[in-house]
């Protein structure tokens, strides 16, 4: 089943879906394993696995630190692929890779996407690869039936949104505000207008991320978006309270 179709089916049974994010190898793969178990057990619908990169330009201080520490502890792309294969085999929800283009380029784009398909990954979020520069990636994503997820921002024009949507698959990731991940997002009339523009530009499901960290935030998005993306909040929680704290946190979001 195509990712977009699977998400629409899941969405028909829930008011809003939850997508979570973690940095592979931070604080350890053992902790990642427990966090994913907690997330799945408590109703997460999609999980975004970030392959650590030295210059994660879309990420805020918390996720930058997680990337740096994962790399410093020796996390490799091969480790991430092996771990993702294990998780995709164990859990039935869709897993995505989020990373930066140099990881794919260095590995070999065809080889990397083929491997991702082989281990059960369903799609990619590559924040630093606009479609104009990603012809090979987009062609291969179609070939391997992987969702090349595109990103809308509040600064995107309606024309740009339509262009991105034309290259997109799976869902559209709607960045809730300008800047990087981790800071609080204000949900006001301009945000509602932005989401209305996003909805007009595509019939793909809409995921909203950047600064989503509480039940209140998720409730605000319910009826406006299809997926709420929780990223920095869970990474911070693991650092402060340990992996076991993730389950109750996720359970309390909906």
Automatic annotation (TrEMBL):
Subunit structure: Tetramer of two alpha and two beta chains.
EC number: 4.2.1.20
Keywords carried by this UniProt record: Amino-acid biosynthesis, Aromatic amino acid biosynthesis, Lyase, Tryptophan biosynthesis
One GO MF term: tryptophan synthase activity
Protein name, entry field: Tryptophan synthase alpha chain
Family: Belongs to the TrpA family.
Catalytic residues as annotated in Swiss-Prot or TrEMBL: 48 (proton acceptor), 59 (proton acceptor)
Catalyzed reactions per annotation: (1S,2R)-1-C-(indol-3-yl)glycerol 3-phosphate + L-serine = D-glyceraldehyde 3-phosphate + L-tryptophan + H2O
Free-text function comment from the UniProt entry: The alpha subunit is responsible for the aldol cleavage of indoleglycerol phosphate to indole and glyceraldehyde 3-phosphate.
CDD domains linked to this entry: Tryptophan_synthase_alpha (cd04724)
Pfam families noted in UniProt: Trp_syntA
Known pathway: Amino-acid biosynthesis; L-tryptophan biosynthesis; L-tryptophan from chorismate: step 5/5
Top EC class for this record: lyase
């Amino acid at each position: 089943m195509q990712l977009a179709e699977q998400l629409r089916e899941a969405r028909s049974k829930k008011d809003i879906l939850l997508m979570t994010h973690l940095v592979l190898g931070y604080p350890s793969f053992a902790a990642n394993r427990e966090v994913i178990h907690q997330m799945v057990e408590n109703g997460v619908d999609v999980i975004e696995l970030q392959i650590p990169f030295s210059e994660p330009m879309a990420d805020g201080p918390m996720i930058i630190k997680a990337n740096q520490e994962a790399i410093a502890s020796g996390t490799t792309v091969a480790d991430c692929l092996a771990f993702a294969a294990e998780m995709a085999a164990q859990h039935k929800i869709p897993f995505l890779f989020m990373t930066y283009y140099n990881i794919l380029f260095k590995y070999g784009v065809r080889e990397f996407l083929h491997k991702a398909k082989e281990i059960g990954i369903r799609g990619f979020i590559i924040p630093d690869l606009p479609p104009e520069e990603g012809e090979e990636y987009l062609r291969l994503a179609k070939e391997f039936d992987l969702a090349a997820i595109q990103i809308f921002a509040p600064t995107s024009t309606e024309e740009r949104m339509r262009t991105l949507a034309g290259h997109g698959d799976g869902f559209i990731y709607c960045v809730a505000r300008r800047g990087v991940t981790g800071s609080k997002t204000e949900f006001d009339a301009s945000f509602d207008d932005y989401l209305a523009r996003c909805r007009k530009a595509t019939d793909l499901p809409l995921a909203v991320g950047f600064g989503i960290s509480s039940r209140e935030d998720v409730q605000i998005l319910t009826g406006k978006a299809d997926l709420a993306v929780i990223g920095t909040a869970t990474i911070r929680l693991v650092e402060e309270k340990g992996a076991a704290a993730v389950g109750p946190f996720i359970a309390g979001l909906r």
